[in-house]
Amino acid sequence: MEVVSQSSLSQSPQSQSEIQKPKSQIGVTLCGVPFRNPTVLASGILGLSQEVFGRLARLGVGGITTKSCSLQPRVGWHNPTIVNWGHGLINAVGLSNPGVEVMVEEIRSAKATLSPYGVPIIASIFANTIYDFGVLARYISEAEPDLIEVNISCPNLDTQHEEMFSSNAFVSAQVTRMVKRNARCPVVIKLSPNVENIALIAKEVANAGADAICAINSLGPGIVLDIDTAQPVLANRTGGVSGPAIRPIAVRCVYDICRALKGTSVQVIGTGGVTTARDAIEMILVGATCVGIGSAVYHHGYGVFQDMCAGIEAYMQRHDYRSIDEFRGRALV
User: Fold this and answer.
1) pLDDT (tens digit, 9 = 90+) per residue, 42-74?
2) Which comes out higher in pLDDT, residue 22 or 142?
3) What is the reported pLDDT for 181?
């Protein structure tokens, strides 16, 4: 119960307003780009629909990452591509997309839709070679996204190194340099948890010029069987594992990365199993600036962003935080 003094009752409405405790502010800045709140739609969740993006903007999303695009159109795998296995999702979509030429126009249209709401758009790209990453960065920059997310943690193999880009610190750094030379906006490098030392790779891409890091991509690959047919449920047989079950791993990865990059200007988007405001706060406590939301949209609908922001605000009021900066990284030791 709030106790109101006699003197405060006699004050004018204006003076009462002046002494009220300021409301918590949940806006953040990522690589110089303002976000009205720290929530970001993760890549590949809802495609690239102006109608859907407009609805998300009205429902309070902080930022939106597009579906990853490549130089040429890609069909991907046939259904089933996404399965709810009870503790999260397992998916093998196959990176289907219409190619960069179409995506440039789609992003331009999406920007026009999101601009009135002040919602930044992050363009996600992936490629088969280091050189192609540079070409993609140059093309996608024509759409003037607010940031570019470089997906080096997808299962495509570099023709020279024959391994996932993010599994090798040197190759990850080479991709980063190539993209930075061709991009006209801040660059976010998306890393995989399927490595021995994610902090080491984060340091290498940071030294190569990355402005931010997104961690993590899906875990795996994993496999889920239909026990009646004794066959995998996914058309591709195996797929990436996401959702609540991987969140502790994602939090540990973000923790390790933020400790390794402490003292630098490189920021982190914490992604992986974030479903509630509590989960988002956990990511911020280990150093994340923004929080990626993916499988939670499948489980809880578009309102998850609004609910998450309300929970973060309630937490901040409870702990007397006036900005997210006041508790970001508090768990780092």
Assistant:
1) 998 886 678 889 999 999 999 999 999 999 999
2) 142
3) 98
- Please state, in angstroms and rounded to a whole number, the distance separating the CA atoms of residues 192 and 220: 10
The reply to whether omega before 216 is within 30° of 0 (cis) is yes
| DSSP letter string, 15-32 | HHHHHSPPPPB--EEETT
The predicted pLDDT at position 51 comes to: 84
**Residue 192: left (phi > 0), alpha (psi -120 to 50), or beta?**
beta
Known catalytic residues are 154
In this structure, are residues 113 and 67 in contact, taking their beta carbons and an 8 Å threshold? no
Domains of the chain by start residue, with CATH: 34-326 (3.20.20.70)
Residue 24 has what pLDDT? 60
Q: What backbone phi and psi angles, to 5 degrees, belong to 41?
A: -65, 125
Alpha helix ranges (H) inside the chain: 6-9, 13-19, 50-58, 100-114, 130-140, 169-182, 198-207, 247-260, 277-285, 295-300, 304-318
pTM: 0.90
Residue 291's identity, in one-letter code, is V
